[in-house]
Amino acid sequence: MSFDLIFFGGTGDLTWRKLMPALFQAFRHGKLPPGGRILAVARDERSDDEYRAFIKERFVEVDSAKRPSDEEFARFAALLHYRRMDLSKPEHYAGLKAWIDDRRADTVVLYLATAPYLFPVICEQLGAAGLNGPNVRVVLEKPLGHDLESAQQINRVVRSVFAESQAFRIDHYLGKPSVQNLMALRFGNALFEPLWRRESIANIQITLAEELGVGTRGDFYDQTGALRDMVQNHALQLLTMIAMEPPSTSDADAIRDEKLKVLKSLRPFSAEMVARDVVRGQYRAGTIGGKPVPGYLEEQKVPPGSTTETFVALRTEVQNWRWAGVPFYLRTGKRLAERRAQIVVNFRPVPHPIFPGSARANKLVINLQPEDGLELHLLATKGSGQGEMLAPVKLDLDFDKAFPTERVGAYERLLLDAIAGRLNLFVRSDEQEQAWRWVEPILDAWAHDPNGPRPYAAGTWGPPASSAMVARDGCTWDEEE
C-alpha cells in the first residue's frame, strides 16, 4: 500500500522529538508499508537534503539503543522530503495537492503537528484545495482546543471538511502497549470481569506523575496547566477504559460508544464539590534525584505570579449500576517524587477475616511507565511454623520479560494505525467534547477562586490536601500504604 504522510509543523519539537523517531522505528522494524513518502512542511526555506541533515542532527538526542547507524539513517532519509508552506496561502495548498497528485498514493495522511488554533485554518484550506478525498486522513494532535467552546469550533470546521471516519484525534497514551493490555485484561480473560464492579472493588486510583518540570516550555505550559494537559485527555481516557462496559465487538465505534457512556456517567461538579473534591497545586523549589531544582515561578518563560496549576488530584464517581459508590481518584503533576504512571484497583477486604493480618485487602496494579506490567497483591501464610499469620505477597508480570522482542512504542503504533485507517485507538469528537464538558466546571470554579493553587515542594507527592482528600474516605494513595 503506497502512502504519503505529510507533517504540518515539520520542524517543530513534536515532529523531530517524537514523530520522526517513531517513524524510524517502524521503518527499522519493517512495519512501515513500502512505497511511502514522508513530507515535512514549514515556513522555513530548506531543500530535501537540508531537512534530512536537520533530522539527523536531532536523532543524536534519541535514546542510544534506538539511534540509527549512518547506513540505516541514509535508507530512512530517502523517504523524507521537505516543502516550504505558508499555511494561510491557498496557492501553497494547491502546490501541495500537485505534489500529492503527482503519483496518487493509496493513502494520504495529513498530520497537524501545529498549535491547535491553526487547525481550523489548515482544514478549511485543505478542503478548498480538494485535499479531503476519501483516501485522505487528518490526524489532530492534542490539545484539541482550550475549552469546550474552542473544541466544538475546531470540530465543526473539521466535520465540514472531513467525514468523522477520516478524523484521527490522537492521544498517545492510548498507543502504549500497557494501555492495550487493559483491554486484553478485561475482555480477553475470564478471571477479573466477575469482580470488576462495586461489590468487589473499594476504589480505583489513576496516577500520572512526572519528575520533570516544564523546562523550556514555560510559555506553552502556562497557557495549559495540568488539568488541560493531562486530566481532560490522558487520565479520562484511562478511566473510560477501566470503567467501560464490554463492547459488543472490537470495532472502533463499538469501543468508543462504551467509553462515551462512561464520560456521560461521571458525576458532574458543582462549585462546592470542586472546593471539596479537587486539589490543585504548583511546585516550589525542591530536590529531585539529590539535586536542587527551581520552583515553577522561577522556570524560563513563566510569567511572574502565575496561578497555573502543575498538579491536580480529584475524586469522582461513575454513576451507573456497575460503579455506584466506588470512588475514582485521579492524580497528575510535575516535579513529583518519581516518574510513575499506573492504575491501582483496590479490592474490598474479606467480609469476615479469620486469620490475623487478613484485614489487608488485595489490589491489582497496572503499571504503564516506566515499568510495563501487572502486579497482583495477595495474602499468604509465611510457612514459618509461627501460626497462621498472613503476609502480603506479589505476583509480578513484567511484559518486557514476558515478551522479549522489542515492543512497538505509542507513537509508532498510532502512526501505523493512521496509515492503515484503524480508528480504535483514536478519540471520537463526541468523546472529546464530553470530556471538556465535564472539566469545565472545575475551570470555572478556579477562575473565581482567589486562593490559587496550593504550593508543594518539588520531589514530593504534591500538596498534603491531596492525601487529606482521599483520607476522608478512609483511603490512602498507593505509595502511602
UniProtKB/TrEMBL annotation:
Family: Belongs to the glucose-6-phosphate dehydrogenase family.
PANTHER family: GLUCOSE-6-PHOSPHATE 1-DEHYDROGENASE, GLUCOSE-6-PHOSPHATE 1-DEHYDROGENASE G6PD
Pfam families on file: G6PD_C (PF02781), G6PD_N (PF00479)
Keyword Manganese assigned: no
Pathway: Carbohydrate degradation; pentose phosphate pathway; D-ribulose 5-phosphate from D-glucose 6-phosphate (oxidative stage): step 1/3
EC assignment: 1.1.1.49
SUPFAM superfamilies the UniProt entry points to: Glyceraldehyde-3-phosphate dehydrogenase-like, C-terminal domain, NAD(P)-binding Rossmann-fold domains
Domain Glucose-6-phosphate dehydrogenase C-terminal: 183-477
Occurrences of domain Glucose-6-phosphate dehydrogenase NAD-binding (ranges): 6-181
UniProt cross-references to InterPro entries, sorted A to Z: G6P_DH, G6P_DH_C, G6P_DH_NAD-bd, NAD(P)-bd_dom_sf
Role according to the record: Catalyzes the oxidation of glucose 6-phosphate to 6-phosphogluconolactone.
Active site: H234 (proton acceptor)
Gene3D superfamilies: Dihydrodipicolinate Reductase, domain 2, NAD(P)-binding Rossmann-like Domain
TM stretches of this protein: none
Keyword annotations from UniProtKB, A to Z: Carbohydrate metabolism, Glucose metabolism, NADP, Oxidoreductase
Binding site for NADP(+): R43, D86, L87, K142
Annotated residues for binding of substrate: H172, K176, E210, D229, K334
Enzyme class, broadest EC rank: oxidoreductase
Coiled coil stretches, renumbered: none
Protein name as catalogued: Glucose-6-phosphate 1-dehydrogenase
Catalytic activity: D-glucose 6-phosphate + NADP(+) = 6-phospho-D-glucono-1,5-lactone + NADPH + H(+)
NCBIfam families associated with the record: PRK12853.1-3 (NF009492), zwf (TIGR00871)
